[in-house]
Amino acid sequence: MTVFKTLTSGVSLMAMLVAGAAQAQSLDEITAAAKKEGALTTIALPHDWCGYGAVIEGFKKKYPEIAVNELNPDGSSADELEAVRANKGNTGPQAPDVLDIGLSFGPAAKEEGLIQPYKVSTWDSIPDAAKDADGFWYGDYYGVMSFIVNTDMVENVPADWADLMKPEYAGAFALSGDPRSGNQPLMSVMGAGMAMGGAPGAESAAKGLEFFAGLNKAGNFVPVAGKTGTIAQGATPIVAAWDYNALAWRDTLAGNPKAEVIVPASGTVAGVYVQAISAYAPHPNAAKLWMEYLYSDEGQLGWLNGYCHPIRFNDLAKRDVIPADMLAKLPPAAAYEKAVFPTLEQQAAHKEAVTAGWDATVGVKVE
Protein backbone atom coordinates (compact mmCIF):
# COMPACT_ATOMS: atom_id res chain seq x y z
CA MET A 1 0.00 0.00 0.00
CA THR A 2 1.10 3.54 -0.68
CA VAL A 3 1.00 5.98 2.20
CA PHE A 4 0.60 9.73 1.72
CA LYS A 5 3.75 11.44 2.93
CA THR A 6 5.60 14.70 2.43
CA LEU A 7 8.37 14.48 -0.11
CA THR A 8 9.81 17.97 0.10
CA SER A 9 9.08 21.21 1.89
CA GLY A 10 9.20 24.95 1.52
CA VAL A 11 8.57 25.67 -2.16
CA SER A 12 7.27 29.14 -3.08
CA LEU A 13 4.94 30.15 -5.90
CA MET A 14 7.71 32.28 -7.44
CA ALA A 15 10.10 29.37 -7.73
CA MET A 16 11.45 28.44 -11.14
CA LEU A 17 9.72 25.53 -12.83
CA VAL A 18 12.10 22.74 -11.95
CA ALA A 19 9.55 19.98 -11.08
CA GLY A 20 11.73 17.01 -11.88
CA ALA A 21 11.88 17.76 -15.59
CA ALA A 22 13.24 20.80 -17.38
CA GLN A 23 10.64 23.47 -18.22
CA ALA A 24 11.15 25.77 -21.18
CA GLN A 25 9.68 28.82 -19.44
CA SER A 26 10.20 30.52 -16.12
CA LEU A 27 7.16 31.53 -14.09
CA ASP A 28 7.76 35.17 -15.02
CA GLU A 29 7.67 34.22 -18.70
CA ILE A 30 4.51 32.18 -18.24
CA THR A 31 2.86 35.05 -16.35
CA ALA A 32 3.69 37.54 -19.11
CA ALA A 33 2.41 35.19 -21.81
CA ALA A 34 -0.76 34.45 -19.83
CA LYS A 35 -1.52 38.15 -19.42
CA LYS A 36 -1.08 38.53 -23.17
CA GLU A 37 -3.60 35.72 -23.76
CA GLY A 38 -5.91 37.57 -21.39
CA ALA A 39 -8.34 34.74 -20.65
CA LEU A 40 -8.77 31.39 -18.92
CA THR A 41 -11.68 28.97 -19.41
CA THR A 42 -12.56 26.63 -16.55
CA ILE A 43 -15.28 23.98 -16.46
CA ALA A 44 -17.35 22.17 -13.82
CA LEU A 45 -16.25 24.25 -10.82
CA PRO A 46 -19.28 25.01 -8.61
CA HIS A 47 -18.50 27.85 -6.23
CA ASP A 48 -19.73 25.93 -3.19
CA TRP A 49 -17.49 22.91 -3.86
CA CYS A 50 -14.13 22.91 -2.04
CA GLY A 51 -14.23 26.68 -1.66
CA TYR A 52 -13.85 27.17 -5.43
CA GLY A 53 -15.75 30.47 -5.42
CA ALA A 54 -13.11 32.08 -3.22
CA VAL A 55 -10.27 30.32 -5.08
CA ILE A 56 -11.43 31.74 -8.42
CA GLU A 57 -11.78 35.21 -6.90
CA GLY A 58 -8.27 34.89 -5.45
CA PHE A 59 -6.87 34.13 -8.92
CA LYS A 60 -8.74 37.09 -10.44
CA LYS A 61 -7.42 39.42 -7.77
CA LYS A 62 -3.85 38.23 -8.29
CA TYR A 63 -4.10 38.39 -12.08
CA PRO A 64 -6.76 41.01 -12.98
CA GLU A 65 -5.52 41.06 -16.58
CA ILE A 66 -6.88 37.53 -17.08
CA ALA A 67 -10.64 37.14 -17.52
CA VAL A 68 -12.02 33.86 -16.14
CA ASN A 69 -14.73 32.22 -18.24
CA GLU A 70 -16.62 29.53 -16.31
CA LEU A 71 -18.35 26.73 -18.24
CA ASN A 72 -21.02 24.33 -16.92
CA PRO A 73 -20.34 24.73 -13.17
CA ASP A 74 -22.38 21.64 -12.27
CA GLY A 75 -20.89 19.37 -14.94
CA SER A 76 -19.35 15.97 -14.27
CA SER A 77 -15.88 14.66 -15.06
CA ALA A 78 -17.34 12.94 -18.12
CA ASP A 79 -18.87 16.26 -19.23
CA GLU A 80 -15.45 17.92 -18.96
CA LEU A 81 -13.76 15.38 -21.21
CA GLU A 82 -16.61 15.56 -23.71
CA ALA A 83 -16.16 19.36 -23.86
CA VAL A 84 -12.50 18.83 -24.77
CA ARG A 85 -13.44 16.32 -27.49
CA ALA A 86 -16.12 18.58 -28.91
CA ASN A 87 -13.85 21.63 -29.09
CA LYS A 88 -10.57 20.26 -30.42
CA GLY A 89 -10.42 22.84 -33.19
CA ASN A 90 -12.24 25.60 -31.37
CA THR A 91 -10.39 28.52 -29.78
CA GLY A 92 -13.60 30.19 -28.61
CA PRO A 93 -15.24 30.42 -25.17
CA GLN A 94 -16.67 26.88 -25.23
CA ALA A 95 -13.23 25.24 -25.24
CA PRO A 96 -11.97 24.50 -21.70
CA ASP A 97 -8.35 25.19 -20.83
CA VAL A 98 -8.21 23.28 -17.56
CA LEU A 99 -9.93 20.28 -15.99
CA ASP A 100 -10.77 19.11 -12.45
CA ILE A 101 -11.72 15.43 -12.73
CA GLY A 102 -12.04 12.24 -10.72
CA LEU A 103 -8.90 10.14 -10.38
CA SER A 104 -9.99 7.43 -12.83
CA PHE A 105 -10.53 10.02 -15.55
CA GLY A 106 -6.91 11.21 -15.49
CA PRO A 107 -5.29 8.10 -16.99
CA ALA A 108 -8.19 7.70 -19.41
CA ALA A 109 -7.78 11.29 -20.64
CA LYS A 110 -4.04 10.76 -21.08
CA GLU A 111 -4.61 7.55 -23.02
CA GLU A 112 -7.02 9.35 -25.34
CA GLY A 113 -4.67 12.29 -25.88
CA LEU A 114 -7.03 14.86 -24.35
CA ILE A 115 -4.54 16.41 -21.91
CA GLN A 116 -1.00 17.76 -22.04
CA PRO A 117 1.85 17.48 -19.51
CA TYR A 118 2.88 20.27 -17.16
CA LYS A 119 4.71 20.07 -13.85
CA VAL A 120 4.07 22.90 -11.39
CA SER A 121 6.89 24.37 -9.35
CA THR A 122 5.64 22.57 -6.23
CA TRP A 123 5.66 19.22 -8.03
CA ASP A 124 7.93 17.44 -5.57
CA SER A 125 5.52 18.03 -2.68
CA ILE A 126 2.72 16.20 -4.49
CA PRO A 127 2.82 12.53 -3.42
CA ASP A 128 4.01 10.14 -6.14
CA ALA A 129 0.91 8.01 -5.69
CA ALA A 130 -1.30 10.96 -6.59
CA LYS A 131 0.29 12.12 -9.85
CA ASP A 132 1.22 10.93 -13.31
CA ALA A 133 5.01 10.59 -13.52
CA ASP A 134 5.06 12.53 -16.81
CA GLY A 135 2.91 15.39 -15.51
CA PHE A 136 -0.25 14.75 -17.51
CA TRP A 137 -2.45 14.80 -14.38
CA TYR A 138 -1.85 15.40 -10.67
CA GLY A 139 -3.89 15.22 -7.50
CA ASP A 140 -5.34 18.50 -6.32
CA TYR A 141 -7.37 17.76 -3.19
CA TYR A 142 -8.68 14.74 -1.37
CA GLY A 143 -10.92 13.54 1.39
CA VAL A 144 -10.36 10.79 3.91
CA MET A 145 -13.06 8.54 5.30
CA SER A 146 -14.35 9.79 8.62
CA PHE A 147 -17.15 9.34 11.14
CA ILE A 148 -19.63 12.11 11.80
CA VAL A 149 -21.19 11.55 15.22
CA ASN A 150 -24.32 13.00 16.78
CA THR A 151 -22.83 13.67 20.22
CA ASP A 152 -26.22 14.54 21.71
CA MET A 153 -27.01 10.83 21.33
CA VAL A 154 -23.58 9.18 21.45
CA GLU A 155 -21.76 9.70 24.73
CA ASN A 156 -18.45 8.05 23.77
CA VAL A 157 -17.24 8.93 20.28
CA PRO A 158 -15.70 5.91 18.47
CA ALA A 159 -12.01 6.38 17.71
CA ASP A 160 -11.59 3.54 15.22
CA TRP A 161 -13.52 1.07 13.09
CA ALA A 162 -13.16 -1.72 15.64
CA ASP A 163 -14.91 0.42 18.26
CA LEU A 164 -18.12 0.24 16.23
CA MET A 165 -18.55 -3.37 17.36
CA LYS A 166 -19.09 -2.29 20.98
CA PRO A 167 -22.58 -2.93 22.42
CA GLU A 168 -22.98 0.76 23.24
CA TYR A 169 -23.29 1.46 19.49
CA ALA A 170 -26.33 -0.79 18.98
CA GLY A 171 -28.46 0.56 16.12
CA ALA A 172 -26.13 3.53 15.67
CA PHE A 173 -23.83 3.14 12.66
CA ALA A 174 -24.70 3.70 9.01
CA LEU A 175 -23.08 4.10 5.61
CA SER A 176 -23.96 6.99 3.30
CA GLY A 177 -25.58 4.59 0.83
CA ASP A 178 -25.32 1.14 -0.69
CA PRO A 179 -21.66 0.20 -1.35
CA ARG A 180 -22.66 -1.57 -4.55
CA SER A 181 -23.88 1.65 -6.14
CA GLY A 182 -22.04 4.53 -4.47
CA ASN A 183 -18.32 5.30 -4.25
CA GLN A 184 -18.47 6.88 -0.78
CA PRO A 185 -19.99 3.81 0.94
CA LEU A 186 -17.83 1.52 -1.20
CA MET A 187 -14.69 3.24 0.07
CA SER A 188 -16.07 3.10 3.61
CA VAL A 189 -16.00 -0.68 3.29
CA MET A 190 -12.40 -0.40 2.07
CA GLY A 191 -11.46 1.69 5.11
CA ALA A 192 -12.99 -0.86 7.46
CA GLY A 193 -11.28 -3.71 5.61
CA MET A 194 -7.91 -1.99 5.79
CA ALA A 195 -8.40 -1.40 9.51
CA MET A 196 -9.00 -5.14 9.87
CA GLY A 197 -5.66 -5.86 8.18
CA GLY A 198 -6.58 -6.17 4.51
CA ALA A 199 -4.51 -4.51 1.79
CA PRO A 200 -6.48 -2.27 -0.61
CA GLY A 201 -8.17 -4.43 -3.25
CA ALA A 202 -9.59 -7.92 -2.91
CA GLU A 203 -8.25 -8.22 0.66
CA SER A 204 -9.91 -5.01 1.87
CA ALA A 205 -13.16 -6.22 0.30
CA ALA A 206 -13.01 -9.60 2.05
CA LYS A 207 -12.09 -8.11 5.41
CA GLY A 208 -14.59 -5.27 4.98
CA LEU A 209 -17.45 -7.61 4.14
CA GLU A 210 -16.58 -9.76 7.13
CA PHE A 211 -16.55 -6.67 9.34
CA PHE A 212 -19.94 -5.45 8.17
CA ALA A 213 -21.42 -8.92 8.50
CA GLY A 214 -20.31 -8.91 12.13
CA LEU A 215 -21.57 -5.37 12.64
CA ASN A 216 -24.95 -6.36 11.23
CA LYS A 217 -25.12 -9.53 13.33
CA ALA A 218 -24.33 -7.49 16.46
CA GLY A 219 -27.24 -5.17 15.66
CA ASN A 220 -25.01 -2.12 15.33
CA PHE A 221 -25.38 -1.60 11.57
CA VAL A 222 -28.36 0.48 10.39
CA PRO A 223 -29.22 -0.22 6.71
CA VAL A 224 -30.27 3.39 6.08
CA ALA A 225 -28.38 5.84 3.87
CA GLY A 226 -26.96 8.35 6.35
CA LYS A 227 -27.17 12.10 5.69
CA THR A 228 -27.71 15.30 7.64
CA GLY A 229 -31.42 14.64 8.13
CA THR A 230 -30.99 11.11 9.49
CA ILE A 231 -28.14 12.27 11.72
CA ALA A 232 -30.26 15.10 13.12
CA GLN A 233 -33.26 12.81 13.64
CA GLY A 234 -31.14 10.24 15.45
CA ALA A 235 -31.91 7.48 12.95
CA THR A 236 -28.20 7.21 12.11
CA PRO A 237 -26.20 8.76 14.98
CA ILE A 238 -22.87 7.69 13.42
CA VAL A 239 -22.24 7.85 9.67
CA ALA A 240 -19.12 7.10 7.61
CA ALA A 241 -18.48 9.81 4.98
CA TRP A 242 -15.66 11.69 3.30
CA ASP A 243 -14.40 14.26 5.76
CA TYR A 244 -15.23 17.23 3.54
CA ASN A 245 -18.86 16.08 3.43
CA ALA A 246 -18.94 15.29 7.14
CA LEU A 247 -17.47 18.68 8.07
CA ALA A 248 -19.95 20.49 5.83
CA TRP A 249 -22.81 18.47 7.38
CA ARG A 250 -21.55 19.42 10.83
CA ASP A 251 -21.71 23.08 9.88
CA THR A 252 -25.18 22.65 8.40
CA LEU A 253 -26.43 21.10 11.64
CA ALA A 254 -25.12 24.22 13.43
CA GLY A 255 -25.15 22.59 16.84
CA ASN A 256 -28.66 21.14 16.53
CA PRO A 257 -27.72 18.45 17.27
CA LYS A 258 -24.10 18.77 18.27
CA ALA A 259 -21.83 16.79 15.97
CA GLU A 260 -18.18 15.78 15.90
CA VAL A 261 -16.08 14.55 12.97
CA ILE A 262 -13.47 11.87 13.64
CA VAL A 263 -10.86 10.35 11.32
CA PRO A 264 -10.51 6.68 12.38
CA ALA A 265 -7.16 5.74 13.88
CA SER A 266 -6.63 3.03 11.24
CA GLY A 267 -7.88 2.26 7.77
CA THR A 268 -7.35 5.89 6.73
CA VAL A 269 -8.41 5.63 3.10
CA ALA A 270 -8.29 8.69 0.83
CA GLY A 271 -10.15 9.66 -2.33
CA VAL A 272 -8.54 12.18 -4.67
CA TYR A 273 -9.47 14.44 -7.57
CA VAL A 274 -6.93 15.55 -10.17
CA GLN A 275 -6.08 18.57 -12.30
CA ALA A 276 -5.04 18.59 -15.94
CA ILE A 277 -4.57 20.97 -18.86
CA SER A 278 -6.47 20.33 -22.07
CA ALA A 279 -4.29 19.21 -24.97
CA TYR A 280 -6.24 21.75 -27.05
CA ALA A 281 -6.23 24.63 -24.52
CA PRO A 282 -6.78 27.96 -26.34
CA HIS A 283 -4.91 29.70 -23.49
CA PRO A 284 -2.08 27.30 -22.55
CA ASN A 285 -0.05 29.83 -20.59
CA ALA A 286 -3.06 31.01 -18.59
CA ALA A 287 -3.74 27.32 -17.90
CA LYS A 288 -0.21 26.86 -16.55
CA LEU A 289 -0.52 30.00 -14.43
CA TRP A 290 -3.83 28.71 -13.04
CA MET A 291 -2.11 25.49 -12.05
CA GLU A 292 0.72 27.42 -10.40
CA TYR A 293 -1.85 29.34 -8.38
CA LEU A 294 -3.78 26.24 -7.35
CA TYR A 295 -0.61 24.48 -6.20
CA SER A 296 0.82 27.50 -4.39
CA ASP A 297 0.29 27.75 -0.64
CA GLU A 298 -2.45 30.34 -1.25
CA GLY A 299 -4.39 28.12 -3.62
CA GLN A 300 -4.01 25.03 -1.47
CA LEU A 301 -5.28 26.89 1.60
CA GLY A 302 -8.26 28.08 -0.44
CA TRP A 303 -9.33 24.47 -0.92
CA LEU A 304 -8.69 23.67 2.72
CA ASN A 305 -10.94 26.53 3.72
CA GLY A 306 -13.64 24.69 1.76
CA TYR A 307 -12.86 21.48 3.76
CA CYS A 308 -11.18 19.69 0.85
CA HIS A 309 -7.72 18.59 1.93
CA PRO A 310 -5.17 20.00 -0.52
CA ILE A 311 -2.77 17.43 -1.90
CA ARG A 312 0.17 19.33 -0.35
CA PHE A 313 -1.45 19.32 3.11
CA ASN A 314 1.38 17.50 4.88
CA ASP A 315 3.91 19.95 3.44
CA LEU A 316 1.82 22.94 4.57
CA ALA A 317 1.39 21.45 8.04
CA LYS A 318 5.09 20.64 8.37
CA ARG A 319 6.01 24.23 7.56
CA ASP A 320 3.34 25.58 9.93
CA VAL A 321 1.67 27.78 7.32
CA ILE A 322 -1.93 26.70 7.96
CA PRO A 323 -3.84 29.37 9.96
CA ALA A 324 -4.78 28.22 13.43
CA ASP A 325 -8.46 29.06 12.98
CA MET A 326 -8.58 26.91 9.84
CA LEU A 327 -6.96 23.96 11.60
CA ALA A 328 -9.34 24.33 14.53
CA LYS A 329 -12.26 23.40 12.25
CA LEU A 330 -10.57 20.15 11.17
CA PRO A 331 -9.61 16.87 12.78
CA PRO A 332 -5.95 16.87 14.00
CA ALA A 333 -3.37 17.13 11.20
CA ALA A 334 -1.68 13.96 12.46
CA ALA A 335 -4.81 12.01 11.50
CA TYR A 336 -4.05 12.61 7.82
CA GLU A 337 -0.42 11.54 7.84
CA LYS A 338 -1.39 7.88 7.43
CA ALA A 339 -3.80 8.48 4.54
CA VAL A 340 -3.60 5.74 1.91
CA PHE A 341 -4.38 6.48 -1.75
CA PRO A 342 -5.54 3.23 -3.40
CA THR A 343 -4.53 2.75 -7.03
CA LEU A 344 -7.16 2.48 -9.75
CA GLU A 345 -6.44 -1.24 -9.99
CA GLN A 346 -6.93 -1.69 -6.23
CA GLN A 347 -10.19 0.25 -6.32
CA ALA A 348 -11.48 -1.85 -9.21
CA ALA A 349 -10.61 -5.13 -7.47
CA HIS A 350 -12.25 -3.93 -4.25
CA LYS A 351 -15.41 -2.81 -6.06
CA GLU A 352 -15.76 -6.10 -7.93
CA ALA A 353 -15.43 -8.18 -4.77
CA VAL A 354 -17.77 -6.03 -2.67
CA THR A 355 -20.43 -5.94 -5.39
CA ALA A 356 -20.26 -9.70 -5.80
CA GLY A 357 -20.11 -10.57 -2.11
CA TRP A 358 -22.29 -8.05 -0.24
CA ASP A 359 -25.57 -9.98 -0.48
CA ALA A 360 -24.13 -13.34 0.48
CA THR A 361 -21.90 -12.01 3.27
CA VAL A 362 -23.72 -9.03 4.80
CA GLY A 363 -27.21 -9.73 3.51
CA VAL A 364 -28.87 -6.31 3.90
CA LYS A 365 -29.74 -3.59 1.42
CA VAL A 366 -28.94 0.00 2.36
CA GLU A 367 -31.82 2.32 1.43
TrEMBL record:
<dbReference type="GO" id="GO:0030288">
    <property type="term" value="C:outer membrane-bounded periplasmic space"/>
</dbReference>
<dbReference type="GO" id="GO:0030976">
    <property type="term" value="F:thiamine pyrophosphate binding"/>
</dbReference>
<protein>
    <submittedName>
        <fullName>Iron ABC transporter substrate-binding protein</fullName>
    </submittedName>
</protein>
<dbReference type="GO" id="GO:0015888">
    <property type="term" value="P:thiamine transport"/>
</dbReference>
<dbReference type="Pfam" id="PF13343">
    <property type="entry name" value="SBP_bac_6"/>
</dbReference>
<dbReference type="GO" id="GO:0030975">
    <property type="term" value="F:thiamine binding"/>
</dbReference>
<keyword id="KW-0732">Signal</keyword>
<feature type="signal peptide">
    <location>
        <begin position="1"/>
        <end position="24"/>
    </location>
</feature>
